[in-house]
C-alpha cells in the first residue's frame, strides 16, 4: 500500500465527504502531511515574480476591470516539480476518495499557486455558475507559516443567499478549505503580509455533465 492510500488518508477523506454531504463545505486544519505543506511553501518562495502572471476574471480581457475584482498573481502547478507533483497526487487520491464515497463523478483537478501582495484582494465571487461550468468542487490550501490574526487576509465565506458571513478563515499554513463551487460566494480580504495559497477545482467531464446520460 503506498502512503497516499494509507488508513489516515482514508479517515481524512471520510471526514471531507461527510462534511460535504452535511453542509457543503469544510475547513480542515491539518489534513495534509506537514512536510508537504512546508515543501510547497519553499517552492513558492523560490519561484520568481516572472513565473507568475496576473490572474484574470472569466473571459474578461479588460485588465483595469480585472484589477478592481482580483489582484492576485498566479501560477499553475505542474508535475515537473516534486512538491507540486506530490500535491497533485494527494488531490487525485482525494478525487478518487470522494468519487468512491459520493459518486460525484469528479473527472480531473487543476490548481494554481496564488500570491496576494500586501493590500491585494479578491472581491466576493462564485467559482462556478450552476450549469455553466464543469468546476464542481473548490479547494483552497494555505501555505503561510506564523500567520498572525493582525495580518488580515481572511477568506470570508457567505451562505448561498445573504450577506452575513458563515466563516472567516485565516490563511495559516496547513489549512484546507473545500466547498461546492456553485454554492458559496466568498472573498479574500486584503492582508498586511504576502499571502500564499493554492486554489484548485475538481471538474466533471463536460461531455458527461452536459450531453450524455450517464449509465444507471
Ligand atoms: C479563488 C479564490 C481564495 C484564496 O482563487 O477563486 O477564491 O483564499 N481564492 O486564495
Ligand atoms: Mn474563488
Explain what the structure shows:
This protein is of the alpha+beta class and 216 residues long. 29% of the residues lie in helices and 26% in strands. Helix 1 packs across helix 4 and helix 2 packs across helix 4. The protein contains five helices and eleven strands, in the order αβαβαβαββββββββα. It has one domain: q2cbj1_9rhob like domain (Jelly Rolls, Sandwich). The C terminus is likely disordered. It starts with 6 loop residues before the first helix and ends in a 6-residue tail after the last helix. The strands form two sheets. Strands 1-9-6-11-4-3-2 form a seven-stranded antiparallel β-sheet. The chain has a four-stranded antiparallel β-sheet with strand order 5-10-7-8, with no helix packed on it. The site of N-oxalylglycine (OGA) has 9 residues, from strand 10 and strand 11.
Descriptive key words:
216 residues; alpha+beta; Jelly Rolls; seven-stranded antiparallel sheet; globular; disordered C terminus; binds N-oxalylglycine; binds manganese (II) ion
What is the CA-based Rg, rounded?
17 Å
Helix/strand class: alpha+beta
Number of strands: 11
Number of helices: 5
CATH homologous superfamily heading: q2cbj1_9rhob like domain
Q: Can you name the CATH architecture?
A: Sandwich
CATH topology: Jelly Rolls
In short:
The protein has 216 residues and is α+β, with helices and mostly antiparallel strands.
Write the layout of secondary structure elements.
Elements: H1 7-22, E1 25-28, H2 34-46, E2 53-54, H3 63-69, E3 73-76, H4 82-102, E4 106-116, E5 122-125, E6 135-142, E7 155-157, E8 167-169, E9 176-180, E10 186-188, E11 195-204, H5 206-210
Antiparallel strand pairs: 1-9, 2-3, 3-4, 4-11, 5-10, 6-9, 6-11, 7-8, 7-10
Helix pairs in contact: 1-4, 2-4
Bound molecules: N-oxalylglycine and manganese (II) ion (MN).
N-oxalylglycine binds at residues 114, 122, 127, 140, 155, 186, 188, 197, 199.
Amino acid at each position: 500500500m503506498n502512503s497516499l492510500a494509507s488508513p489516515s488518508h482514508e479517515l481524512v477523506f471520510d471526514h471531507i465527504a461527510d462534511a460535504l454531504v452535511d453542509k457543503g463545505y469544510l475547513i480542515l486544519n491539518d489534513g495534509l502531511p506537514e512536510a508537504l505543506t512546508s515543501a510547497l511553501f519553499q517552492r513558492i518562495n523560490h519561484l520568481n515574480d516572472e513565473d507568475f502572471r496576473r490572474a484574470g476574471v472569466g473571459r474578461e480581457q479588460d485588465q483595469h476591470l480585472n484589477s478592481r475584482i482580483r489582484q492576485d498573481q498566479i501560477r499553475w502547478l505542474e508535475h515537473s516539480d516534486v512538491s507540486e507533483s506530490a500535491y497533485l497526487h494527494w488531490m487525485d487520491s482525494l478525487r478518487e476518495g470522494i468519487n468512491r464515497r459520493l459518486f460525484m463523478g469528479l473527472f480531473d483537478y487543476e490548481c494554481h499557486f496564488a500570491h496576494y501582495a500586501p493590500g491585494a484582494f479578491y472581491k466576493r465571487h462564485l467559482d462556478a455558475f450552476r450549469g455553466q461550468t464543469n468546476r464542481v468542487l473548490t479547494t483552497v490550501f494555505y501555505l503561510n507559516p506564523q500567520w498572525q490574526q493582525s495580518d488580515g487576509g481572511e477568506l470570508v465565506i457567505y451562505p448561498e443567499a445573504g450577506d452575513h458571513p458563515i466563516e472567516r478563515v485565516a490563511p495559516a499554513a496547513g489549512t484546507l478549505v473545500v466547498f461546492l463551487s456553485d454554492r458559496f460566494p466568498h472573498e479574500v480580504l486584503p492582508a498586511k503580509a504576502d499571502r500564499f495559497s493554492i486554489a484548485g477545482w475538481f471538474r466533471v467531464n463536460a461531455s458527461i455533465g452536459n450531453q450524455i446520460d450517464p449509465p444507471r
